[in-house]
Amino acid sequence: MNRKYLIGFALAVVVLGVLALLAWNFLEIYDKTKYISPSREANINDYLALDRWLKGMGIPVRAESSGNLSTVSRAQERQVFIQASLFRWTDEAVEYLIQWVEEGGHLFLVMDTDPIEGWYNDSELLLEEFGIEIEEGSSSFYGSESPDYDRRVSFWLSETFYGEALLLKNSDGNIKLVQVKRGRGKLTVTGRPLFLHSWRIDSAPNARLAWGLFAADNEIAGRSKEGWLFIRGATRAQGILGSLFKRGNLLVLVVSGLVLLVVGFWAVIPMFGLVRRDDEKPGKPLRERFLAEARFLKRYGALAIYRDRYVKEIKRHLAHKEGICAGDAVARRVLDIWGKPANDRDSALLVRVLRGEPVKYREFPKMIIILISILERI
Question: 327 Cβ partners below 8 Å, 6+ apart?
Answer without folding.
Answer: 354, 355
